[in-house]
Amino acid sequence: MIDLKHLYEFGLEIKASNIGINHFRMVDGPDKLVESLKDLTNEENHVLIIVLPSHSSNGSTSFDDLDYNNFTQFLVLEKFDIRTIENNFEEMSVFFRTMDTMKKLIDKMTNDFYEREEFCGLMSSIKAGTLQIDPVRHQSDTSGYSLVFTF
User: Fold this and answer.
1) What distance lies between CA 69 and its chain's CA centroid?
2) Coil, strand or helix: which one is 26?
3) How crowded is residue 54: how many other Cβ atoms within 10 Å of its Cβ?
4) d(Cα 113, Cα 47) in Å, to the nearest integer?
C-alpha cells in the first residue's frame, strides 16, 4: 500500500509547482468531495482534489506474495456560476482551461517519475496503462476533469 502522508505531501507539491492549481484538498470519498466543493470560491480556481486510494490485493493467493494495487483519483476542477454562462463556448471554455491544467499535472507527474527523488517511489509505482481521464460536469458548481489511475 502507498504511504498516504506521502500522497498528501505530493498534493501540496503539485499546488506549489505553479501549474495552475490554487487550492488542494484530499478527501476520503464522494460525500466529503461534495462537501469540500461547496466551500470553494471562484477565486480558488483551479482546485486539485485527491481521493484517498482504495486497495486491492491484486489476486494474491497467499500472504507470502501479498501485493496491493492502489486505485486513486485526482480531480482538476473549476468553480463557476452556471447562471453566468451565456453560450456553449463559455461552458466548454471551463473544460479547455481545466484540460490545460490537467496536462500540466500529468507533465509534472511524468517529470517527477524521471527526476525527483522524494516522489520517485510514489511516481515510479504508477501503472501508466491505467491512466484514464474523464470529464466531470456540474458537480457542486464545478466542472473539469478526473484522472483515475493505479499505483
Assistant:
1) 17
2) strand
3) 12
4) 22
Return the DSSP state at 10: H
Cell numbers given for 133? 481521464
Grid cell in block for residue 29? 470519498
Q: Work out the widest C-alpha separation in the chain, in whole angstroms.
A: 60
3-state SS of 91-108? HHHHHHHHHHHHHHHHHH
Query: The pTM is what?
Result: 0.84
> Is 28 within 8 Å of 4 (Cβ atoms)?
no
Residues facing 24 on adjacent strands: 48
- 151 residues of the chain, pLDDT tens digit each: 678 898 999 999 999 999 999 999 999 877 777 777 777 777 778 999 999 888 666 665 655 555 667 788 999 999 988 888 889 999 899 999 999 999 999 999 888 777 755 554 566 677 778 889 999 998 888 999 999 988 7
Rounded Cα distance between 42 and 32, Å, is: 19
